[in-house]
Amino acid sequence: MFPVVKAQLKKDIRSPWLVILLTLGSILFTYIFTYVNNNEQTQTTIPIFSSDFNSSEVEEKWEPLLNANQDYVFVITDESEAHADVEEGNSEAAIRLSESDYQIIAASNTQAVQLVEDYVHTVFTQEAQLEAASGSEDIEATRKQIGGYLEDAPLQMQTESIEDGEVPEYNMQLQLLFGFTLFLAMFTIGFKVNGVTSDKISGVWDRMILSPVSKTAMYAGHLFYSFFIGFIQICIVLVIFNYVMDYNLGHNFGMLLTVSAVFTLSMVSLAMLFTGFIKTPEQFNMIFPSIIPIVPVISGVYMPPGLISNPVLLFIADLFPLVHAMEALMDIALFDAGWNEVTLPLVLMLLIGVICMGVGVNLVERRTK
Amino acid sequence: MIETVKLSKTFKGKKAVDEIDLYIDEGESIGLLGPNGAGKSTTISMISSLLKPTAGDVKLNGKSTIKNPAEIRRILGVVPQEIALYEELSAYENLKFFGEIYNVKKTILEQRIQEILEMVGLKKPQKELVKTFSGGMKRRVNIAAALLHDPKILILDEPTVGIDPQSRNHILETVRKLNEENGTTVLYTSHYMEEVEQLCKRVYIMDHGKVVASGSKEELLSILSTEDMIQVTLSEMSDTVVEKVKSIKNIRRVDATDKSLRIISKKGSSILSDLIHAVESEGILLTNFQMETPSLEDVFLHITGRTLRD
Ligand SMILES: Nc1ncnc2c1ncn2[C@@H]1O[C@H](COP(=O)(O)OP(=O)(O)OP(=O)(O)O)[C@@H](O)[C@H]1O
Ligand SMILES: [Mg+2]
């Protein structure tokens, strides 16, 4: 087995560019996309103003209440300036405030405007409820009272992460980081497994069959090497983000690596299954890269969770290891999940691995006959 | 040593190899000749245990190798028709890889690699990548890769197709040395008659999956002992002149190329005056006339009605 691994390694040391490019690609993509994503979030600025007689009072009342959310920044602005901002497209919307009512000013009814509207509506409704509850009494006191009551309610529903502590906000940046890393590793793994077909076509495979090396060792050599390179690539990217770029990948780096290893294993098998259906390495290089990019899309890697509800797509996504790896990685990094919580995705990935490997190797062997 | 018994292979209803019987004794060098698609490579694949025969058997010292190919694989070196190497690695690295998979001991592998590189004349460029090599150099590495474990039997499948004469001579010389000095048994496949004539004591001629003739060179040539071979060159060529020559008594076969005719006639028959007459009646001049000793090529033509390379 080791001569086979060594030969593959030597080839890659000669021309390491594919692996290097894909590794750098993971880092660069994640960096760029999360950067853009972050900027967009902080820049959703909404001008607010009031044209009532007690405008400054009204503005000062609502400004802190609206700004309790981190997605938007509400800035008190001059009325004409607010109108200009919306007209020129600098802001999606502006809001005219009254004592207990509001009016959205927008150029068109986009989804973004809808989201702002929803949010503002919630804030105003809550406030109205508070006012109603307190009757004529001091609203501020009621707010405090209710706040205190909620903190120590007789019936408590606590949302907690699996281990302990608060539920952190969902982190899209982290999802993209894991997503890109695994996605690009899928290419590396595929291209390495394709070495089996290359050897078959070149005739090196037949030479190995005639040698004392067993068939198991031949497959093992190629597949171990593919695993090794794919896993190293994922490790490098994760280490760079965790230790060099100081991204917060949670408290259990070792578990992240373990999940990545199982993912890599299962992707090696999936690539082997592809190999079973193709004849030449060139065919593989055409088909594999045109199917793989669909996987993260249907696996919902590029979107916040829960947006894909089509059962067919969900089912197809479940057949690929990516969705399970993402689930496990996010649970570990975000919610401090323990081994028990990631058992299911790990088992599913291993299952995919075993089935694909079995079918793949069988197809390849049958083709030879 | 090796023997095939009614060895046959059918691909999707098409008989690629049809009941072939051949034997190779220890130390012999055997030629397997045949045009494209004759079934040479298929035969070799079955002998070397890479392909399961549809019917028949391959025996090594009387024992069938089909169920248990380990024995024959151990003593066999196979040079495949295609270049089966890692082109992204150097010649040296390739040989090292094949030496390692053949479990050649570390202590002797290095020396063995250098010996073989010397033998195929690639000692100098051994550190260069195979993909930068010329076709001839690649072929030589392809052969070298089959020699690391010092095989008792060497099977070469058209090891000289499409290469320069220098590399070709080098390869022929290498194979000859292996056979004569090292005692390696050789099965050499080619569609170049001259190579086989030069290298092999005994020849099998294949066509359409069958062995159509076999024996030593002399035995094969004696097939033509009842015929003369005449080569004539004409000032111009026409279809009618070919027809006229064909109709001459005692002429058995006429093959026309560009401006010459290759004529096979009954031995000792005097056809010359008829020939000159036939040509001149068409207003054509006979510019050259030559009696030739028949070659294996002519034997092949005689048996199959085709030239080896058409
Ligand atoms: N794997 C295969 N599947 C189907 N047909 C095949 C296969 N291998 C060979 N054949 C057919 O069997 C016949 C013999 O092929 P083979 O390669 O043995 O000929 P060859 O004598 O080696 O010819 P060449 O000089 O071109 O190498 C050919 O007609 C070929 O098309
Ligand atoms: Mg052939």
Please give a structural write-up.
The complex is a heterodimer of chains A (369) and B (310). Chain A is mainly alpha-helical and 369 residues long. About 3% of the residues of chain A have low confidence. Chain A contains 16 helices and four strands. Chain A folds into two domains: 236 residues, no CATH class; 109 residues, Periplasmic binding protein-like II (D-Maltodextrin-Binding Protein, domain 2, 3-Layer(aba) Sandwich). In chain A, helix 1 packs across helix 10, helix 10 packs across helix 11 and helix 15 packs antiparallel against helix 16. In chain A, strands 2-1-3-4 form a four-stranded mixed sheet, sandwiched between helices. Chain B is of the alpha/beta class and 310 residues long. Chain B has two domains: 220 residues, P-loop containing nucleotide triphosphate hydrolases (Rossmann fold), CATH 3.40.50.300; 80 residues, Alpha-Beta Plaits. A six-stranded mixed sheet of chain B has the order 6-7-8-3-9-10, with helices on both faces. The complex binds adenosine-5'-triphosphate (ATP) and magnesium ion. Magnesium ion (MG) binds next to helix 1 of chain B.
Keywords:
heterodimer, A: 369 residues, mainly alpha, D-Maltodextrin-Binding Protein, domain 2, 2 domains, four-stranded mixed β-sheet, 16 helices, 4 strands, 70% helix, 5% strand, elongated, B: 310 residues, alpha/beta, Rossmann fold, Alpha-Beta Plaits, six-stranded mixed β-sheet, four-stranded antiparallel β-sheet, 11 helices, 34% helix, binds adenosine-5'-triphosphate, binds magnesium ion, ABC_transporter-like_CS (chain B), AAA+_ATPase (chain B), ATP binding (chain B), P-loop_NTPase (chain B)
